[in-house]
Amino acid sequence: MSLAPALAVLTAASALGNLEPVGEDAAAIHIEATDVHYIETRWTETVIRGRPWVPHRRLATLAKGTRLVVRGVVESRDKAGCEGKPWYAVYPFGFVCSREVRPSKSPPSTAAALTLTDDRTLPFDYVLVRESGTPMYRSDAEAIAGTPHRLLADGMSLAAGRTREVGGVLYLETADGMLIPKDKLGWMGKGSAWEGVTIDEEVAVGPAFAWTSRDKTPVFAEASATGEPIERLPKRQRLQLSGDAVTTDAGRFWPVGEGRWVEDDKVNAVVFIDPPAGVLQPQQLARGNDQWIDVDLGEQVLVAYRGHQPVFATMVSSGKGSPTPRGNYPIWAKVASMTMGNQDYEDKPYMVEHVPWVLLFQGHNALHGAYWHDRFGQRRSHGCVNLAPKDARWIFEWVAPTLPEGWTGYLPGDLAGSVVVHVRDTSLPTNEAFIQERPIGPPDPEEEKRKKEDAEARRAESRAAEADPSAAVAAHAPDPGSPIDPEVNLPD
Predict the structure, then answer these.
(1) Where are the alpha helices (DSSP H) in 420-488?
(2) Kind and range of the H or E element at 27?
(3) Pick from 284, 301, 302, 285: which is nearest to 293 by CA?
(4) pLDDT at residue 486 above 70?
(5) What's the confidence (pLDDT) of residue 469?
(6) Is 298 helix (H, G, I), strand (E, B) or coil?
(7) I want to staple 380 with a disulfide (CB 3.0 to 4.6 A). Which of 49, 287, 317, 415 is the partner?
(8) Is the model's pLDDT at 461 over the cut of 90?
(9) What phi, psi does 340 have (nearest 5°)?
(10) Domains, the chain, with CATH or none
(11) What's the pLDDT tens digit per position in 32-49?
């Protein structure tokens, strides 16, 4: 039986997702032959691990019904994690417990994760909660009894499934099987139609092009806005930049042709750069991957590169109240879609369901699709880098390794080989445009625990002050010698 067709997508992922174990985990694993060629996951969230035992790090998660190619079987060495049952070694990497899967006669799909149909731009239909206190039920019984699982806040968004009647009331059943009264919800539309541009030709370092950021953008004959405009351009029109920006007493201007100038704050300029130090990691290059991503917070643009060559550019929306952190950040997780919400230590309820095409690069911050606004080119988020749906999908599928259909998440075994997101802010002075503001990788559990404890203490103090107003006078001021605790940004 030939496995080549089934491996078309998977081997491409394997080539760029080399996850060789290190240290004591590097000991040889004896993989025996098996008559089972394909398996299918039985669990809602099936885990692929780096080695065939528990505990061992997760490399990926798969949805129920996802099929895999088997490369052999490994006898279990632990009686807890897989209940003494064997493990399957699978392509392109890792091991899965045999009790979580069953043999299949069909090969895996060669489609990519979160495949769209019918020319859709989003993987789900989305709805907006219109009233705080809207009930969410887990079952028909809860809905009939009027005992909600939780109450939703105004502005939360949900991934919609079907509409159905329960006890004479119309409910929306979400993609996760929850029930919400339909009259409390509003449809959110199909998402922004904006999309960036692919770059096929070789280009030079320096100013490239820009998009106008507002309607009726004025074009002047000189680098000054005091005269009458010679032309007004529509929003998001692409302009070729004919040189570097010029700063005069009248402000900063970009040349867009002979005798044609536009104000810097009315365009989002794309300037190509050489790879800065640290964006191409030796281990990554050893695997044949030269991808990296540049995010310019000052211009609100993103450029994807292969080595020195830009391949894609678009406008984004980065953090506003909570700025996106500057620095070099290797992507620590790829997630097809995830529900994002406020952390335990944050007081304001917040939830957006099934945010698509997520690349987590620092703590809770991510590149991801945003289906709830069309303000790309402006700061808008809580710290993440928002992309229009088409752009988010392009970047997600471009960043190695490719996730096949049914794969819901991927965790690099070693961040030293992961694609780096380079975040800078050219609106700041040169010596401040790029600094390493945050540590790399996922949120620090100890730091998260400390923030939760601080929040609980703050809330307890607030409750005490409400019960006894005189206690508020005794509330102590922060210790001026204590370090400032930067806010952990929630994805927006």
Answers:
(1) 430-433, 445-467
(2) none
(3) 302
(4) no
(5) 65
(6) coil
(7) 317
(8) no
(9) -110, 140
(10) 5-104 (2.30.30.170), 125-187 (2.30.30), 192-205+273-348+360-492 (2.40.440.10), 206-272 (2.30.30)
(11) 999 999 999 999 999 999
